[in-house]
């Protein structure tokens, strides 16, 4: 059975929730250990679905190599969820970011890998996140370290799983809650 759009949508909506994002990190322990506080994990991570970043580029220099501020472009990133670590006491963003890539319907290994590579290229400059409501007060400068986590399904072709393992990229196999899938299908049916 191929990966369906509803599989992708269920996991995208689920991991938009902090608690579900933390549950995902429990599936890959090295990333769970990056949470600043295990006593308050829900206050140690910000989950941003379909994230957008403002890429800053220095303005051209005027005489004597003096630049005047910076310009930038706001771009959507190729990852599905950005997990930003933050200190629950000081409410400041930490230097670690985990980017989640969920296998999309009809996406093969090269497309999945290309999304990660494009995200690496995009975030190789100075950038800041466009933060979700309620978190906009937080300084959202770029990271010291960016880590990918790939989410695949039982239905994902084995060549993709082998490719991720061969490229030494961490992945977890997830099975969406089909109760949520039915709700999603009913909502689409009701809209149409």
Key attributes of the depicted protein:
32% helix; 192 residues; single chain; globular; Trna Endonuclease, Chain: A, domain 1; alpha+beta
Question: How would the blueprint of this fold be written?
Answer:
Elements: H1 5-15, H2 18-26, H3 29-32, E1 45-49, E2 52-58, E3 61-62, E4 66-67, E5 70-76, E6 81-87, E7 92-102, H4 109-122, E8 126-129, E9 145-153, H5 158-166, E10 171-174, H6 178-191
Q: Can you tell me about this structure?
A:
Helices cover 32% and strands 30% of the residues. The protein is of the alpha+beta class. It has one domain: Trna Endonuclease, Chain: A, domain 1 (3-Layer(aba) Sandwich). The protein has a five-stranded mixed β-sheet with strand order 1-6-7-9-10, with helices on both faces. Strands 5-2-8 form a three-stranded antiparallel β-sheet, with no helix packed on it. Strands 3-4 form a two-stranded antiparallel ribbon. Strand 6 and strand 7 form a beta hairpin. Helix 1 crosses helix 6 (178-191). The longest helix has 14 residues, at 109-122. The protein is globular, with a radius of gyration of 18 Å.
